[in-house]
Amino acid sequence: MDIQIQAVSKEEEEVLHNLMQFYIYEFTKYMSSIRIDENGCFGRFDLDAYWKDRSHHAYFVRVDGLLAGFVLMQSQTEEEPNSIEEFFIMRGHEGKGIGSKVAEQIFSMFPGRWYVCQSEKNERARAFWRNIISKSTGGNFAERFDERNRSIQEFVIYERSV
């Protein structure tokens, strides 16, 4: 199985919005406030920062050349650590280790301070991130809950010497 992380170009924004419909749908089981618009679609994310700001990065995940998900992340600035903003692997690819491999690749592409947070009701996501972060850091991470009871893991990924 060939897993690729491919930067999304501005010209591919519509494809990313289409994939995001599946992602948003997944969240309807955790957030009753999500509603479908009259056009039959969920509202669009504002992705402008991903085309304008050098610290925002959008990636498609491809498995054997086919679209399988996406990652939206922000790279470390002087004020903020690296962070996963949105992370999605389509259901047909679950349980095959794809998400873990993608997360590990993203971490290694952006060494430094990190934080990842999950919705309070999304236990599957919490378990996934705790597991991959523990594996990537040798268990060296801190976890806290914010005022909205979101789980937040904070950790450091060190550059690997070649």
- What general outline do the C-alpha atoms trace? globular
CATH topology: Aminopeptidase
Q: Stretches where pLDDT falls below 50 for ≥5 residues?
A: none
Q: Work out the helix count.
A: 4
Structural class: alpha+beta
End-to-end gap: 25 Å
> What oligomeric state best describes the polypeptide chains here?
single chain
Name the CATH architecture: 3-Layer(aba) Sandwich
Percentage of β-strand residues: 25-35%
* Count of β-strands: 7
| Biggest sheet overview | 7 strands, mixed
How does this model look, in words?
- This protein is of the alpha+beta class and 162 residues long.
- The chain has a single domain, classed as Gcn5-related N-acetyltransferase (GNAT) (Aminopeptidase), CATH 3.40.630.
- It has helices at 13-27, 48-52, 98-109, 123-137, and strands spanning 3-7, 56-63, 66-74, 82-89, 112-118, 141-145, 151-157.
- The two termini are 25 Å apart.
Summary, kept brief:
The chain has helices at residues 13-27, 48-52, 98-109, 123-137, and strands at residues 3-7, 56-63, 66-74, 82-89, 112-118, 141-145, 151-157. With 162 residues, the protein is of the alpha+beta class. Strands 1-2-3-4-5-7-6 form a 7-stranded mixed beta sheet, sandwiched between helices.
Topology summary:
Blueprint: E1 3-7, H1 13-27, H2 48-52, E2 56-63, E3 66-74, E4 82-89, H3 98-109, E5 112-118, H4 123-137, E6 141-145, E7 151-157
Parallel strand pairs: 4-5
Antiparallel strand pairs: 1-2, 2-3, 3-4, 5-7, 6-7
Task: Write out key terms for the chains shown.
Aminopeptidase, 7-stranded mixed beta sheet, alpha+beta, 7 strands, 162 residues
